[in-house]
Structure formats: structure tokens, C-alpha cells
Amino acid sequence: MTSGTAARQRTSRWAIASLVLGLAALFFFVLAPLGLPLAVLTIIVGGCSILDIRRNDTGGYGLAAAGILLGIIALGIIATTAP
User: Fold this and answer.
1) 38 assigned to some structural domain
2) What does the pLDDT look like over 37-81, one tens digit per residue?
3) What range defines the domain where residue 32 resides?
4) In the beta sheet, which residues pair with residue 59?
5) 53 falls within a domain
6) From CA 39, how far away is CA 74, in angstroms rounded?
7) 63 near 56, Cβ under 8 Å?
8) Taking every annotated instance into account, which residue ranges of this chain make up the domain DUF4190 (predicted)?
9) Residue 4 lies in a domain
């Protein structure tokens, strides 16, 4: 009988960074000069994290996808509220 424990898969640090940047981009969307670069950087880091996850068989795909989605949402908010 097996104990049911499996080796934990390492989460990609790029994926964590993408999620944190996405949250920061949403928080700072009011300040367009700061929110816009954060949103773009979130999407870039999220894409890099997905490549890293596929290449190195690490975890964190959901975090990376959430980061990319938050970056896209922040870009949309900034684009619609910009003067």
C-alpha cells in the first residue's frame, strides 16, 4: 500500500512574479505612468513564465495565467480611462 504522498512540484518564480506584478498593475492603474509599464511587464513576465513552466516541467501555470489576465485587465482599464 502506498502512503499517498507525492513529491511536491516546484512553483516557477516567474509565475509568482507575474501574479504579483499583475496585482500591482491593478492597484496602480490610477497612476497611468506607473500602471501602464507594470501591466506590459506583467504580460511579458507571464509569457516567460509559461515558457519556463513548459521547458522545466515546473508548477505555477495557473499563477502565470492569472498574472497575464490581470495585466490585460489593467491595460484595458488604463486604455479606457486615459484622457
Assistant:
1) yes
2) 899 999 999 999 999 999 998 999 999 999 999 999 999 988 888
3) 13-81
4) 11
5) yes
6) 6
7) no
8) 15-79
9) no
